[in-house]
């Protein structure tokens, strides 16, 4: 059973508190969107579970969004359909109701990941597509040198890829997703070559893992990163990342199709 927060949020993150500026910092990245589009194939009807403010919802498809957080539903732009107030673990649809199902940056926040994925499989005739992060790779990012507590939190929250595959069943493929240097979707690794951006509290707030660490951790991070950017220490250690057009980190696309 999902515990609901005041704004309806389900899972471990309180989007009534952290979601206010989400649409400003988490704009869909077209090159990631293309990976999703390829994975969905020719699906016409798609359910988007944990739809949030509508990132990665193609207007070329008939998308039914599902989002339990009232604050996130309120941020959806007018050209997208309103989201249904429901949780992944209890989707209010018939079996095989959609050509496909998708979820992006959401499974790590569900209270019962396996139940949610089984529900997605139940309501989709074709592919189930999950954009997520591999917890085994999360700590390889430069941020770990400055705020290990944040990435330790991420690694604990993201379900193992093998567990996702097992819950989905069928034929499962896992594909790394390269992150472009000017990525418009502001998750932590999107700033691999733009560390200055994470000095902005609003940018950090749009990544839910930061809400699980206390103020002294955030203050220490900002102090130490600012110091190393001003002294050149960050660039001496990680500056080569600024020259990389893409970064292959923990971001992966998991796709399951029925046998």
From TrEMBL:
Q: Where is this region: Disordered?
A: 1-26
Pfam family of the protein (one): Methyltransf_11
Q: Which GO terms describe its molecular function?
A: methyltransferase activity
| Matching InterPro entries | Methyltransf_11, SAM-dependent_MTases_sf
Q: Tell me where on the tree of life, at the top rank, the source sits.
A: Bacteria
Which GO biological-process labels does this protein carry? methylation
* EC number of this enzyme: 2.1.1.-
Alphabetical keyword list: Methyltransferase, Transferase
Where in this chain does the record put each Methyltransferase type domain?
48-125
Name listed for the protein in its UniProt record: Class I SAM-dependent methyltransferase
Q: Can you name the source organism?
A: Streptomyces noboritoensis
